[in-house]
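At your convenience, could you comment on the folded chain following this short note?
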Amino acid sequence: MDKFDFGGISIPIENNYQDIRKAREFSPERSPREITKDLIGHLSSFYKESKILSPEKRGQLNKILIGLALTLLSSDIDSHAPEKEINTKTLPDSSHSFKLEEVPAQSIQETKFAPSPIEIKNEPPSKIENPSISLKSPDKIVTDASMERVINIVEGVLSNAEKLSQDRKRFPQKLFSKKFLTALKIQESAFEIDAESGKGAVGLMQVMPRAILEVIRYLNKLERLGVVNSNLPSEDQITEKDIEKISNLIKTNGAYGEAFGKIYLMDLFYNFDIGKAEYTSDKITEAQKKILATYNWSPDDFKKYEDNEKMWPTQSTEYYQKIFRYMDTIDKIQAQMKQMKILTDVFDLSPFLALEIKKYERELGEKSPDFEERIKGVMMDYLITIKEMEEIREEPLTPEEIKKIIKNFNSEAYRNYLAKK
């Protein structure tokens, strides 16, 4: 059986496939894009089962997978491009080098995996997610030099976001609580990492092109102040093409979208002073309201009418109100879970329940006289099911298990809901 070496571990490859160059010889009609997708499918299948690897090596394998996926997104991969040998020297430590001996090309099957960090479908990949893994360097497997530059920028934002998120002065947890960020992501993207609006907002937290540029500008300012070491190009060196590529990259990884969103929130609060006076006076809700309205609008426009809410756009007012309702929903879910002694983390559970409630809101309408009672009934149906599964498992459920339960339960719950309408 063929194999490749990873970190000194021989990993078997099933079905005796040819390597990627031989695949081109035997199947000239198959483009490099198709072959690369097949390679991703095979390696990701192994990733899902790779419990024998240390966390470090799993992270390195994840880097290779993301590098391959980004290669699919780059413009130089097409069926007419000359053959290029994939550069697999991606790891800093030679003892963990990746050696490919025999790579399959014939009956490789696309692998759709959950709960793995990457999902590749038949179209070019748009969902490549593992927010829990921080990638510290770009993959050299991407041959486009401008793409490597963009990866360096995005990685720089990610690493600085991880550091600055711990800065209680610039990113106070009381203001930017987990509940606040969860509600924001529910409203912005419904937790779809590749979400994109008609106006160009992208990712988990729907950052606009102007916000991407503002994040880079703010990090460069912090570097001049000696707060961070951003190693980013100055904002006047960022082109529209760079912004477009950064936007595309944000849509491939939830961590990237969250990093840009968090730093932009930090910029609004600590750099533009939006909500800072209210926060200092312990008026947290008022501070959050102003920050959310600005996040939806723009800091320059907001500053003109900061103290005159009647002049705020209706869209921005409705935006912060919706997020406050999701925060209230999370509180209610948490209180009910505590009463029912449900062990699962409320923040593993609440996004799924909040999204379900959002669906019922659209159907029923918030102005319905029995809206609150109906929503409470829907929430209780789900929580009872979660509790029953916990009692069987005798331990908290994982997000993936919750997702499956809600998906399986969904059709029955929805039919019952419609029957009561």
